[in-house]
Amino acid sequence: MFKIQTDLALETRELVQKGLGREIEGVEVEERKEFEDKIKITKVKINSIKGEAILQKPIGNYITIEADGLRDEDFEVQEQVSKVLADQLESLINVSQKSTVLVVGLGNWNVTPDSLGPKVVSKVLITRHLFEFVPDKIKDRRVRSVCAISPGVLGITGIETSEIISGIVQRIHPDLIIAIDALASRRLERISTAIQITDTGIVPGSGIGNERKGITKDTVGVPVVAIGVPMVVDAAIIANDAIDLLLERLKNETDRSSPLYMLLESIPDEDRFNLIKEVIFPYYGNLFVTPKDIDRIVENISTVIADGINKAIHPEVKENEEYRYVN
Fold first, then answer.
1. CB of 64 within 8 A of CB of 185?
2. Which of 22, 26, 118, 291 could make a disulfide contact with 109, Cβ separation 3.0–4.6 Å?
3. Domain limits of the chain?
4. Are 53 and 14 in contact, with CB atoms under 8 Å apart?
């Protein structure tokens, strides 16, 4: 089977299940809808080594929240998504009121589709410095100790992101890391409309074939929960899907006994996809595309994610009270 670039466990499971024609052994799936069916929540749990090997994803939980309202600027849906995100995030984290949380905004702030992580960090309620310098201002202890960093990428810093985070962990000893990153999808309709949360950590760049060292509990020493949103899709996938649709229409309008029908049936998916890659690669390498209004999309979705993180980490702080802990 040809390799489709995607960071979403949901999509990997869909592709493998389609090929097998049945559910995958060692993988549990739960689906439900909320808020008048405008929000879909899919939980993919890999609970065995066999499931891990088949999906090529670590054992753990992968929660995907999908809502078209995220793309359509439906503010009511966005507010509900932030609440769902907070609920799902709370279900994965195990921290006490005295815990310190490190929020890491992965990605390159100079490249708009990759700037989601830094954008989220700029909107998260940061409090660790208050505990150290003005503890009397937060004596009600309704907030947890939260610090954040946007470490950039290897091309900017010359340092692997995992090395930067490991150094920070050794210095401040957080109890949990929440990492935010832009992802790659294999479906156009999921660009900016899906949010994946996982307790397995993250491997930056894996969805676009530029895999870096992973940021996981094994590599940095503390639990890592990753939040990601698809912002790009492989151009070859778009071309492949378009050709696939064209071939299906041609087959529907062609006599099954004709040579043309047999020719259309004989074209393997893998050969077609590799041919498309051969056309694109010499000129652009691995070409990924993103919506033209990606700046607006990143701004909106970063607010939704930051709100969800704030609600999960500081559940007792109401939105109109956040001003008490800033400036």
1. no
2. 118
3. 9-236+287-325, 237-284
4. no
